[in-house]
Amino acid sequence: MNWKTGLRSLYYVGAPEPDDPVLVPAQTAILVIDVQNTYLERPDRASLSPQEQHRYDLWTPFHERMHGTVIPNTARLLELARANGIECLFARIACHTKDGRDRSLSQKMPGWNNLLLPKNDAPSQLVAELQPVGDEIVVTKTTDSALTGTNLRLILHNLGIRNVICCGIFTDQCVSSTVRSLADESYAVIVIEDCCAAATDELHRKELEIINMIYCHVMSSFELCKIMALAK
């Protein structure tokens, strides 16, 4: 994928190719969104009912992408960022109360988004491969957008950040919500395609088409590293 011409919706067919972004390390942060234990843990398939096994199988491509692509690429990108003076930030969904009464309405709706993740419980923690190092900042949110539901806006301002590189899950939900919020605050946003995932590849790619060229630029981790000349 060429980031300058790929993943364009109808709105941007024929639009001029964007210039390479100027990403000064001291003004740039990587934000890893919601890569938490609750989304990566799976039961023993053999212990499930036929209906549950069907649902399990529907989610298998997501888990394969996470373990084979997203987590390794994000870990590598974080390592390069740390070596080059780029801030590494993390966001996670978690509630401050045991019964989740402090959650936003979207996280109380029946179905997939009805998450009860008390902040100190194991399911709400970031996965082992993508843990913060030293004094890297983790914000806890009860909303989809990491900007709306936390003090991340103030943190980014205080750090002098102007460019935010987004990774994480889910592309069409919390990643997209965060990207749109950041864009509305006039941050320059980049989404790393091979460091994100949605429930299906179709949803992932369609959402990238929707947000690309207006709320962010979408590129691969290789393209980002080339633009920023990231090396250990």
TrEMBL record:
It comes from the Bacteria. InterPro entries: Isochorismatase-like_dom, Isochorismatase-like_hydrls, Isochorismatase-like_sf. GO terms for molecular function: hydrolase activity. The keyword Hydrolase applies. Keywords: Hydrolase. Residues 28-220 form the Isochorismatase-like domain. Gene3D superfamilies: Isochorismatase-like. This is Amidase.
